[in-house]
Amino acid sequence: MSRDKRGEVGRLYIAERQSYRQIAAEIGCSHMTVAKMIREMGIRPRRQSDAYFFDARGRRCRYHQGYILVYVPDHPRADRSGYVKRCELHYEAYTGLRLKYGQFLHHVDGNRENDDPRNLVVMTRSEHAKLHRPIEARWGKREASAAPQQQGLSANQKR
Question: How many Å apart are CA 91 and CA 54, to the nearest integer?
């Protein structure tokens, strides 16, 4: 690759904060070639946690464990880095209430990116853990297969 292209790759990666794939599409090569050029230039590759993007309101965001986090450093539930789960911000805006200590939001459809307030339910940590606990943990592995069948049995039919 020419020196100009290498300079362009460095600029796009550092100043524009573009991903390897975005840079590859722009200059017409593979993302692996971009990764190799960045290593050869001595630039420290970003970790995935370093990557962020901007939402429609212009707020800085990033992903963590499937959740979209928004940079709001003065929010009471912000982590050490100043990020808050977007679902919490949507819930607060919709209801006008802040989540209390020990309250968590459950996504009814299981999609952590769906922050529609109708999809969010407030729960305690123990309620949320019970909801997500697998059936084997609730019934025990041996009884898990028999548990649904035993529901219809009378007391004297059970062992």
Answer: 20
Distances 137 to 80, 134, 142, 148 between C-alpha atoms, Å = 34, 6, 10, 14
pTM of the model: 0.52
Say how far apart CA 154 and CA 149 lie, in whole Å: 11
**pLDDT digit of tens for each residue in the chain (159 aa)?**
567 788 888 888 887 778 888 888 888 888 889 888 888 888 887 765 556 677 667 777 777 777 888 888 899 999 888 889 989 998 999 999 899 888 989 999 888 888 888 899 999 988 888 888 876 665 665 554 554 554 444 444 444
Q: Return d(Cα 50, Cα 76) in angstroms, integer.
A: 23
Q: How many CB atoms lie within 10 A of CB 50?
A: 10
Closest residue by Cα to residue 120 from 139, 143, 147, 97: 97
